[in-house]
Design brief:
Strand order of the largest sheet: 2-3-1-4-5
Number of helices: 9
CATH class of the largest domain: Alpha Beta
Number of domains: 2
Number of strands: 5
Radius of gyration: 18 Å
CATH architecture of the largest domain: 2-Layer Sandwich
Length: 184
Amino acid sequence: MDQFYVFVHKKNESNELLPFLHAAFEEPFNTIENDVLYAKIESEEILEAFEDLYHLWIDDLGEPFTIAILPLKSLEIFRVEDINTMLKALPYAYYAYDHLLFTACNKNETLKVDIRKRIAPHLSSTLISTIRFFAKNNMNVSVCAKNMYLHRNTLMYRLDQIDALTGLNPRNFEDFHVLYTLFY
């Protein structure tokens, strides 16, 4: 079973949001600062319906907040403080991992540089050039492999490595868009 972290940035210090979070996730939330909470969860089912829950909570509470649901392996790359900084710099919304990174890269050049600094050490120059070739070949594995003079399975292996090291799957358009924004 996959594990996730849920981060919540609330607009003010009111505790009205906590009962909603405890009821939905059945996990205790820790406080990073007065306005940022986080918890580790192991339920994929809640993730599937979460975007709808987010909008219901906004209606019930009458105040915006930001929530991000990130895979556990994302914290191998980013510190909790990095996530905290991103959440505070972005518009209030619901963010999955790829959406959080993409929005951060496009809204704030400083965050983009910070994200690149966190992800780049996990990728070799070969994997970064693979991302660039993959972009030039419109994410087409067969054409990209041919243009890189690689066997198709070698390219697939490299794409799998990128996914394993970053938590971003280059064969998924949203994830690839983040990688493209960072490295192209």
